[in-house]
């Protein structure tokens, strides 16, 4: 007997006394919890997102769609970035003004290859205002999960207000649980028992979030 058969057998025995007409789990458990804290306008929700991103030590920038290319070029130049990982679905004009070598998101790249890259630029799937979180789901403008975890500098572009929601429950409504979800709240960091903060432990040391309108 395989491990799979053994586990499924235990599940069948555990469910043996459940009536066939019993209420399904998705209806048996009430889902009447609070879906957001207070009522906010779209503008107030974006402001809360910016505030909480900054609280997590992310660097927050704002621009219009027309100014995105020049802003990204300036951020990469200020960082001294010469190589940038670019997912295939990133807008063709995003890096038009940047003087960098664009590295495609390739399956064959190893963590060592990505560690030699200066920066990565991605879009996002959704951003959560109440928690200051951006979520990536592996869509074409976000690429494989590892490109947002290995390079030391991540620039994430968020379209506002379209991609911004107030709460985690609202974000989950927009996300496909079968996709590779990466939830990012600020740059990677941890603290030891003396509360000494160390950044860049399991992800980028620097996270910059660009809130783009228009």
CATH topology: the name is Rossmann fold
Helicity range? 25-40%
**Rough shape?**
globular
Instruction: Give me the side-by-side strand order of the main sheet.
Output: 1-12-7-4-2-3
**Protein structure class:** alpha/beta
Provide the β-strand percentage band.
15-25%
Per CATH, which architecture? 3-Layer(aba) Sandwich
Distance between the termini: 59 Å
Summarize the main sheet: 6 strands, parallel
- What's the structural domain tally? 1
What name goes with the CATH superfamily?
NagB/RpiA/CoA transferase-like
N-to-C order of helices and strands:
HHHEHEEHEEEEEHEEEE
Number of helical segments with 4 or more residues? 6
Summarize the topology.
Elements: H1 3-14, H2 25-28, H3 42-55, E1 59-64, H4 68-79, E2 83-86, E3 101-104, H5 111-115, E4 119-122, E5 126-128, E6 133-136, E7 153-160, E8 164-165, H6 168-174, E9 182-184, E10 189-191, E11 197-199, E12 206-213
Parallel strand pairs: 1-12, 2-3, 2-4, 4-7, 5-8, 7-12
Antiparallel strand pairs: 5-6, 6-9, 10-11
Describe the protein in words.
With 214 residues, the chain is an alpha/beta fold. It has a single domain (40-213), classed as NagB/RpiA/CoA transferase-like (Rossmann fold, 3-Layer(aba) Sandwich), CATH 3.40.50. It has six helices and twelve strands. The protein has helices at residues 3-14, 25-28, 42-55, 68-79, 111-115, 168-174, and strands at 59-64, 83-86, 101-104, 119-122, 126-128, 133-136, 153-160, 164-165, 182-184, 189-191, 197-199, 206-213. Strand 5 and strand 6 (133-136) form a beta hairpin. The termini are far apart. The model has no long low-confidence stretch (mean pLDDT 92).
